[in-house]
Design a protein that fits this description.
Keywords: Metal-binding, NAD, Oxidoreductase, Zinc
CATH class of the largest domain: Alpha Beta
Bound molecules: NADP nicotinamide-adenine-dinucleotide phosphate, zinc ion
Number of helices: 11
GO cellular component, one term: cytoplasm
Family: Belongs to the zinc-containing alcohol dehydrogenase family.
Largest sheet: 7 strands, mixed
CATH topology of the largest domain: Quinone Oxidoreductase, Chain A, domain 1
InterPro entries: ADH-like_C, ADH-like_N, ADH_Zn_CS, ER, GroES-like_sf, NAD(P)-bd_dom_sf
CATH superfamily of the largest domain: Medium-chain alcohol dehydrogenases, catalytic domain
Cofactor: Zn(2+)
CATH architecture of the largest domain: Alpha-Beta Complex
Length: 371
């Protein structure tokens, strides 16, 4: 610990009556508890949830947000046994070693003992879960962060994926991958992706195409059409086109049948409402996007009774899902659209977030040593 600085650079969120803004400042290094590890960040993505959290609409937060972080372990707490980092398994205990590459995702700790944790794949809903950037848990818009040694997302170097491509998969990518898995859609089936031009949605288009699905992309504005089609969508529906009936347009793309899976990734009730209507027989609506608390969705039970459709929610992904989602990137089947940035760009990123296609990835210093 003696060679570590006492202060670090961080992007902190401040709110006042006119809204929120990010400020770059120096803050003390987080305290390393005996069961924690200290990670020096090399890269972090910026997710739509960070913008939602920054606005204050999603409840209390830590002043340091961010949950798509990659870095290397630089110190172990006094109760964490030293180990080698030779394993290629991201979940292996020996990923906990100084020098090992790790990810810091939305889920930062899970108890391993509650009803959610004991359910296969249930750890992301742990009753005692701790999330990056939520109260008490510093996020990844900072040079250092602490992680409990019992919940480490290992990102082995053998994966052969650069830090700036790993980062956006840790939330955006794995969320899209898991939502598709939750939908149960088969190869050849139609998948509607609402919010397809955004950070999570662009990944959903690519994962769906890589899994052999047919994608109809929905987003606002014509500028995102070319982007979504280049990512692998077969069709694009512009929800901002007031001359167009969105539900009819999706039905038309699917020759009247409706879609087998609708991924509602845009964080608005309007996208959910439309998705319910363009689901095909026995289709599945997967809830991903988080509308503000006052926006709700309505349905008549006959929709479910007559059409046999399902609604499921999907929450990021487990460490196993992260490993699987990264595998698609390692094999070249999914290519994150990275917009390189510096921590100092965070205020600008927040102001222009809605206008860009691609994932902002902030790099810290020059320490990205992978490959
Ligand atoms: N469930 C989970 O585990 C999970 C994980 C990660 C993120 N999220 C949530 O997922 C949402 C998306 O995150 P993100 O990072 O992808 O945000 P993003 O980059 O802002 O993407 C959202 C996209 O949806 C578009 N959109 C807005 N209204 C629409 C509509 N009615 N129909 C279709 N598209 C519409 C937006 O266009 P404009 O910019 O023009 O409005 C934007 O392109 C957020 O609510 C985030 O909190 C959930
Ligand atoms: Zn996220
Ligand atoms: Zn638990």
């Amino acid at each position: 610990m003696s060679s570590l600085p006492s202060m670090m650079k961080a992007g902190v969120v401040r709110r006042d009556s006119s809204g929120f803004s990010f400020h770059i400042t120096t803050v003390p290094l987080p305290q390393l508890a005996p069961t924690d590890i200290l990670v020096r960040l090399t890269a972090t993505g910026v997710c739509g949830t960070d913008i939602g959290l920054a606005s204050g609409k999603l409840g209390p937060t830590h002043e340091i947000l961010g949950h798509e972080g990659v870095g290397r372990i630089v110190a172990l707490g006094s109760a964490v046994p030293a180990a080698s980092s030779s394993s290629s398994s991201p979940c292996a205990p020996d990923a906990v070693a100084v020098g090992a590459r790790v990810g810091l995702a939305w889920l930062r700790d899970a108890c391993g003992a509650c009803a959610f944790c004991l359910h296969p794949g249930g750890e992301t809903r742990c009753a005692a879960r701790r999330n990056s950037g939520r109260a008490g848990v510093g996020g990844t818009f900072a040079e250092y962060a602490v992680v409990p040694a019992r919940y480490v997302v290992g990102v082995p170097d053998e994966l052969g994926v650069r830090d700036d491509a790993v980062a956006p998969v840790l939330c955006g990518g794995v969320t899209a991958y898991k939502a598709l898995r939750e939908s149960g859609v088969a190869a050849g089936g139609w998948v509607a992706v609402s919010g397809a031009g955004g950070g999570v949605g662009a990944f959903a288009v690519q994962y769906a195409a890589a899994m052999g699905c047919r994608v109809v992309a929905l987003d606002a504005g014509d500028a995102k059409r070319a982007y979504c089609l280049a990512l692998g969508a077969e069709a694009y529906v512009d929800v901002a086109d007031e001359d167009q009936d969105v539900v009819a347009a999706v039905r038309s793309v699917t020759a009247g049948a409706g879609v087998a899976a609708a991924l509602a990734i845009a964080g608005t009730a309007k996208a959910y409402q439309a998705a319910l209507e363009f689901l095909g027989p026995f289709g599945t609506l997967v809830c991903v996007g988080i509308p503000p608390p006052w926006e709700t969705v309505s349905f008549h039970p006959l929709l479910f009774i007559d059409k046999g459709v399902r609604i499921v929610g999907s929450a990021v992904g487990t460490r196993e899902d992260i490993r699987d989602a990264l595998g698609f990137v390692a094999r070249g089947l999914v290519k994150p659209t990275v917009l390189p940035a510096k921590l100092e760009d965070l205020p600008h990123i927040a102001n222009t977030f809605a206008q860009v296609t691609g994932k902002y990835v902030i790099k810290f210093g020059e320490s990205d040593s992978e490959d």
